[in-house]
């Protein structure tokens, strides 16, 4: 006799059979309907390939942020997050020539709203710094983001190297529906074209590459369902 835990699965199978018009007999499953024709996928624009990125034009690579003093105690706890992201955005804008390949072209104007105050002032679009060990070395990294407009943000993660320099180990332009950290994982939640789902990009520390690398990309249900508490963007009124 099947256990109570197996009954929902059995019910689901029976419901699927009823919906497809199939039935089960001693030889297995059969379907009297037309299964249709299976078509091979069609490749589009096979003669067009993107140019390879130029040296230094890879947002996913680690890079020492220029123009910052070395951190003598090798701790991010006393580091000014606004100063770090200002130096990073300035360097990236100069490097990509305002093309947006490394950072949103509007970022330099947005960071200019920050003052020399500890928190950057009331108009500063830099999010409060979060300290969390994502490299597993026992020392906290700096996680922050620069909000470009009411939707798009520049997410950044920085670490202190053994020589005291500050290096960027993750760079993402994204609609930050949510950001979560756990152990050596950082998950970025973004809305999709389907309002029922949110895309979740899971980044983990790659010691060989020296960066946070994308390890998994999944879909999660939004809070529109009764079984999920996942936040998703609400439709505009």
Concise overview:
15% of the residues lie in helices and 30% in strands.
Explain how this protein is built.
The chain is an alpha+beta fold and 237 residues long. Helices cover 15% and strands 30% of the residues. The chain has three helices and eleven strands; from the N terminus they run αβββααββββββββ. The chain has helices at 7-20, 81-96, 107-111; strands at 23-25, 28-30, 63-64, 130-132, 141-147, 152-160, 166-175, 178-182, 185-191, 197-206, 211-221. It has a five-stranded antiparallel β-sheet with strand order 3-7-6-5-4. The protein is globular and about 70 Å long. It starts with 6 loop residues before the first helix and ends in a 16-residue tail after the last strand.
Nearest-angstrom radius of gyration?
24 Å
| Overall body shape | globular
Total number of strands: 11
Class by helix and strand content?
Answer: alpha+beta
Bin the strand percentage.
25-35%
What is the terminal-to-terminal distance? 52 Å
Spatial strand sequence of the major β-sheet: 3-7-6-5-4
Major β-sheet, in short?
Answer: 5 strands, antiparallel
The H-and-E topology, N to C, reads as: HEEEHHEEEEEEEE
What oligomeric state best describes the polypeptide chains here?
A: single chain
Query: Mean of residue pLDDT?
Result: 82
DSSP helical segment count: 3
Provide the helix percentage.
Answer: 10-25%
Give unreliable regions as ranges: 1-26
């Amino acid at each position: 006799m099947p256990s109570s835990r197996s009954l929902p699965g059995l019910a689901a199978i029976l419901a699927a059979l009823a919906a497809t018009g199939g039935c089960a007999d001693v030889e297995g499953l059969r379907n009297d309907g037309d299964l249709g024709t299976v078509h091979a996928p069609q490749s589009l624009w096979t003669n067009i390939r993107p140019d390879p990125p130029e040296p230094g034009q890879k947002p996913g690579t680690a890079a020492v942020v220029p123009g910052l003093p070395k951190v003598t105690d090798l701790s991010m706890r006393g580091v000014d997050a606004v100063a770090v992201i200002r130096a990073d955005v300035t360097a990236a804008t100069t490097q990509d020539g305002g093309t947006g390949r490394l950072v949103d072209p509007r970022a330099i104007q947005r960071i200019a709203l920050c003052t020399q105050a500890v928190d950057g002032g009331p108009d500063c679009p830099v999010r409060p710094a979060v300290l969390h060990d994502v490299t597993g070395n026992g020392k906290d990294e700096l996680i922050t983001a620069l909000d470009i407009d009411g939707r798009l943000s520049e997410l950044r993660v920085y670490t202190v190297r053994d020589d005291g320099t500050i290096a960027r180990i993750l760079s993402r332009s994204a609609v930050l529906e949510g950001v979560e950290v756990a152990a050596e994982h950082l998950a970025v939640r973004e809305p999709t074209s389907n309002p029922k789902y949110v895309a979740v990009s899971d980044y983990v520390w790659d010691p060989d590459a020296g960066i946070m690398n994308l390890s998994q990309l999944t879909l999660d249900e939004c809070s529109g369902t009764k079984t999920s508490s996942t936040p998703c963007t609400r439709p505009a009124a």
